[in-house]
Amino acid sequence: MDHSTNNDPLALKRAKPGTPEAGWQALAHLYHSFFTGLILQVSLQLGAETAGKWSYQYFRRQHHEKFLSSFEKLGAAGLPDAVAAARYHYLSNRIGGVEVEYMFESDKKAWVRFPHPRWIYDGTAICGVPIEVGHGFIHGWYGHNGVTLGNPRLGWVCTSQDVNAEIGYVGYFKEYDHDLGDDERVSFVSDETPPRFDPNQAPTLDSSIWTTERLGKARRNYAMDYVKWGIFELVEMLGPDTTRELSVHTAALISRQFYRDLQQRLKLDRDDDSAEAFARFIKLQAMAHGNDISWDIGNDGDVRIQQSGWRLVRGMSDLPAATTSVLFDAWNALWRGCLNVHNRFLTFETDQRPTDAGSDIVWRIHGDDRS
Asked: Angle CA(235)–CA(311)–CA(140) in degrees, nearest 5?
């Protein structure tokens, strides 16, 4: 399958470095990698059972938050429920930058396939993901479609699982001839395969509405939502202290691994390791978030950066202070980790922490023992 055709508004294309589109893609890639890292860290540090429970709780929350709220704008309203559910999952995931296929079979049966490479388990990470994580999102999201749509006969049949090295994550929504019990809304079979995907028969969106800018920001937000709500659910499950330790460590690793890629996407000079160069990086990532930012150099030589607003928590109303604190520490660890790669002799201090999405943040970069 080729999603790179010019007439496909949802095509997955890498933007030209230094463009606004590249900034949105840089953040989408960073947050996507952060979430994959969280899956691995939870699985490694806390075990497969806890990772599966977290996956279930996260995807059930997101199901309640997003499923019906975007149903109509994705053209799913008024269709048979099995078809509507499959179309929704096809379009919503493609908007997020995920490769996915949709195959109509009948008004009561429609397929969805997520082929390899799997977006959620980026690269070699798929080798470290226990199957419990997949079972969590299957039961947390896919198995709840019928309940949310008010159709007790609608279920999800999983025919292939990605971490089992089958043909990706595959299944179909099916409307049965009888009401389903709680333990019947999800089933697993191994003797069915989906029809061949025909992109010309798949649902589409209006490219005049889904512009490059809207799509770029949507993909940024899609990945960002995984991180912020994933950390939120970890706090609910594990408490703030354990979640802070785990998520800060994950952010520190991910940012170190991906800073050079971010520099390339943002068209920054890799050889310039000055404090001012890092301030330019912080400004570009803030602009890609949609936040206003300014910086200057003080008489002491320190670089002071002030950002207005904190997009990460936009839409997260009434957050407990402890959860806000964990989210900031984890998010802030991304930029600290980037600085460690940029120039390990510089220090990144936070002089003002945010309390909500409208808060200002103030950082200070100082020191270089080589001078």
From this structure: 45
Structure-token pair, residue 361: 């943040």
Q: What DSSP designation does 294 have?
A: E
The answer for residues whose C-beta is within 8 angstroms of residue 11's C-beta and 6 or more apart is: 3, 4, 5
**3-state SS assignment for residue 127:** helix
Residue in the structure block whose two tokens are 């604190």: 325
Q: Please, is 22 exposed, middle or buried when counting C-beta atoms within 10 Å of its C-beta (0-12, 13-18, 19+)?
A: buried
> Are the C-beta atoms of residues 185 and 156 closer than 8 Å to each other?
yes
Domain with CATH 3.30.1380.20 in the chain: 242-366
What would the 3-class secondary structure string for 235-268 be?
HHHHCHHHHHHHHHHHHHHHHHHHHHHHHHHHCC
pLDDT tens-place string over residues 314-370 = 999 889 999 999 999 999 999 999 999 999 999 999 999 999 999 999 999 998 654
User: Within 13 Å of residue 250, how many CA atoms lie on the same side as its CB?
Assistant: 29
CA nearest 250: which of 7, 40, 50?
40
| Exposure letters 295-333 (e unless 16+ CB within 10 A, then b) | beeeeeebbbbbbebbbbbbebeebeeebbbbbbbbbbb
**0.90 exceeded by pTM:** yes
Rounded Cα distance, 126 and 112, in Å: 20
Q: Which two tokens stand for residue 282?
A: 């912080």
pLDDT in tens, 87-133: 999 999 999 999 999 999 999 999 999 999 999 998 999 999 999 99
Q: Which 3 state secondary structure label does DSSP give 163?
A: helix
CB 113 within 8 A of CB 167: yes
Residue 162: which residues within 8 A CB-CB, separation 6 or more?
114, 116, 118, 121, 126, 134, 168, 169
Which amino acid, residue 308? S
CATH class, range 20-201:
alpha beta
Question: Domain 242-366 falls in which CATH fold?
Answer: Muramoyl-pentapeptide Carboxypeptidase; domain 2 (3.30.1380)
